[in-house]
Amino acid sequence: WAEYFKQKNIRDQSLRAGEEIDLIREAKELEAEIARMKEETAAASSEAEDLEMTLMGVWTQCQVLSKEIRSQEEVLTRRQTELGQAQATKAAQTKAVADREAAAAAAYAARQAEVEAKEAAAHAEQMRVKHEARAAAE
Questions:
Q1: For the segment 72-102, what is each residue's pLDDT rounded down to a tens digit?
Q2: What is the largest CA-CA distance in the chain?
Q3: DSSP annotation of 21
Q4: What is the DSSP letter of 1?
C-alpha cells in the first residue's frame, strides 16, 4: 500500500503541478490580454483625443466662417441699400432732366406762339392798313 500511496501521491502532485502550470499559463494569457486591452485602450484614448482636437479645430473654423458670413451679409445689405439709393438718385436725376426738357420745350413753344402772334398781328395790321387805304381810295 505504501507504494500505491506513494504513486498516488506522485500522480496527485503531478496533476496539481499540471493544473498549476495550466493556471500559470492561463494567468500569463490573461495578463497578455490585459496588456493588449490596455494598449488598445491607450490607442483608442489617443485616437479620441486626436478626434477631439480635430473637432475643436473644425468648430473654430465654423465660428470663423460664421463671422465671415455675417460680415458678408452686412456688406451685402449695405451695398443693396446704396444701390437702392443710387437708383432713386438716378431716377430723380432722369426726372429732373425730363422736367427741364419739358420746360425748355414749353418755353420754345411759348416763344414760337409769341412770334406767330406778332406775325399775325403784323399781318392783321397790314390788312387793316390796306383795307383803310382801299376804303379811302373809294
A1: 999 999 999 999 999 999 999 999 999 999 9
A2: 196
A3: H
A4: -
